[in-house]
Amino acid sequence: MPGVVSMLVRAVRILALFFILAGAVVACAQLPSPALLVLNKDDNTLAIVDPATNIIVGTAPTGEAPHEVAASSDGRFAYVTNYGPFQPDQPGNTLSVIDLGTRHETRVDVSPLRRPHGVEFAGGKVYFTAELNKAIARLDPQTQKLDWLLGTGQNRTHMLVLAHGLDTIFTANVQSNTISMIERRSTPDDWTETVIAVGKGPEGCDLSPNGKEFWAANSGDGTVSVIDVATKKVVQTFNVGTRHSNRLKFTPDGKLVLVSDVASGDLVVIDAASRKVTKRLQLGKAAAGILIVPDGSRAYVALTADGKVAIVDLKTLTVTGDIATGRGPDGMAWVGR
Fold first, then answer.
1. What number does CATH give the domain 249-329?
2. What percentage of the chain's residues is helix, strand, coil (to nearest 5)?
3. Do 300 and 294 form a contact (C-beta atoms < 8 A)?
4. What DSSP string runs through 190-238?
5. Beta carbons within 8 Å of 1's beta carbon, 6+ residues apart
6. Each residue of 203-231: b (16+ CB within 10 Å) or e?
7. pLDDT of residue 187
8. Taking the domains of the chain in order of start, what are their residue ranges?
9. pLDDT tens, residue by residue, 194-233
């Protein structure tokens, strides 16, 4: 009898191990390539979407009120800035590191930094802004420790754009009405900052694919400021008729610029060469995050108040569908090609 019991216990253990391994295999198999990552600010989750079917294949937890996400170069991990609720006494102070295969989240405390927001992955490191500290910081994913910090001296350092080669970093400083252009000099730790005045409330911003121009969408006055990177000066400011610009993105070929208007729910399409608005698409409520796929064929625009992401065909400039992702979608990232 004891032998039978021992055999049963062993069988149960083997069966349990089988289900654990099978579950892990299924979880990994569910990660599509490519994949669309969408943050849901009000659910505190990251949704993983198969863009071939527009179906959510998995979710992972995040910290409170996640705003922006970046994926590692190998597509294995997502890095999320947990901004925290808008109450002034509850600023976020963590990043979520998410294994996209297992959906496991590791919460990294970045104190004393507060209100982490814009985030980019480059050179094997995670760069992000810390609004309340007026700073840019860098996380080493291997140690999960901060290994670099640079102050901007500007109020509400919000969005972050890294130039190719990591020799230039741009930030949009919403409450200072400025763009910071931060350039590496002779040594890795020697940086110089040029503060460039733009319109009111610069928020969405992007570097042109050829690296010659930096565009900033000014949320407070409905304009876009164009900065010549070589001279570090604004060469043009023009009106695009937005009520509250949220994000701005160049298409990969540099021909079009997309601006989301969180107040009107519009997506504004601008011809980059002429600086003229060529189309205005009404998408829904609270158009926010924009992601353009690498081949430039389509854009995803988060509609925060509608709980979905609109799909825009960039060849026809029409809306071809939407994806219900959760409550408060905003920041997005693309994994794969």
1. 2.40.10.480
2. 10, 55, 35
3. no
4. -EEEEEEE-SSSEEEEEE-TTSSEEEEEETTTTEEEEEETTTTEEEEEE
5. none
6. bbbbbebeeebbbbbbbebbbbbbbebee
7. 79
8. 249-329
9. 999 999 999 999 999 999 999 999 999 999 999 999 999 9
